[in-house]
Structure formats: C-alpha cells, structure tokens
Design brief:
Blueprint: E1 9-11, E2 14-16, H1 29-49, H2 54-81, H3 87-105, H4 113-147
Antiparallel strand pairs: 1-2
Helix pairs in contact: 1-2, 1-4, 2-3, 3-4
Bound molecules: fe (ii) ion (2 copies).
C-alpha cells in the first residue's frame, strides 16, 4: 500500500513500506499503542531526512529519541513491577538500540543515501526482531500476570 508521499525502506534491494500491520499486535494495548507511534514517528523522520529542512529534521529526531526513551521506560518499569524473569536481557536490548540510534541520528540528513537507507533498515529490522523475540514474550507474561 502506501501513498505517493511515502518513502520506502530499502531492505536487501527491495522496497519495503513500513506500516502498522495487525501482525505486530502483541495483545497488550499499552505496548501496541506505543509501537504504532514508533512506526508513525519513523515514517515522519524519514520524510524529514529527505526534506532539506533542518528544523523539521531536528524536530523529528528529538521526537524519535523522546519516544524511544518513554517507550523503553514504560516496558522496563512493567518488567520491574511484575518481576519479569527476562528483565536484564530485554532492558539491555533497549539500551543498546537507544545508544546506537542516538549516535547514528546525528547529521543523518547530511549522510549518503546508502547510510540513510542503512539507518532505516536498522529501525525496521530491530523493531520486527525485538518485537518477535522479546516484546511478544513480555506481553504474554504481562497479560497472564495482570489476571492474577
Ligand atoms: Fe516495545
Ligand atoms: Fe522491548
């Protein structure tokens, strides 16, 4: 799908449009809402990178960092609250990704097309992998524990 304005993420030579899909649902609504925001924010960030508008880019960069920080804090706090056994490795993945994004986001709009593509490929792949491996497991655990 996608409309004229949308910019694809190039993954292994293929164009991928990064959209919310019910496939990404974890069943835990707070996480799902924030994951939807992630996709929307990445899409706007991508537009800002190609916009030649420095203020727009800086605004979207700041928004992405704020979103990540808030989302990771939300999940980390839920893990602490319910004594989630996989807390340390899950939190470590958040921390690593956060540091990587922060570092690579600096001057992203002045980098080569290849570097820009790599950046968005990472944002897509990480989201999907982290969701499949870690967030789904956490959501299942939270749903079961909140019933108790
Ligand atoms: Fe998440
Ligand atoms: Fe997570």
């Amino acid at each position: 799908m996608g409309n004229q304005e949308d910019i694809p993420v190039i993954i292994g030579g293929y164009m991928i449009f990064f959209y919310w899909d019910s496939y990404y649902d974890t069943g835990y609504s707070l996480m799902d809402t924030q994951h939807k925001d992630y996709i929307a924010i990445v899409e706007d960030l991508q537009k800002s990178v190609y916009s030649q508008d420095q203020d727009f880019f800086e605004k979207q960069s700041a928004l992405f960092i704020t979103h990540l920080s808030e989302h990771f804090t939300t999940e980390n706090n839920l893990m602490i609250k319910y004594s989630y056994p996989g807390y340390f490795s899950h939190k470590a993945e958040h921390d690593r990704f956060f540091d990587k994004i922060k570092k690579n986001l600096t001057d992203l709009n002045k980098k080569s097309t290849n570097e820009i593509n790599n950046f968005f490929e990472v944002t897509y792949r990480w989201f999907k992998n982290h969701l499949e491996i870690n967030d789904r497991k956490l959501a299942k655990f939270l749903i079961e524990n909140e019933k108790k």
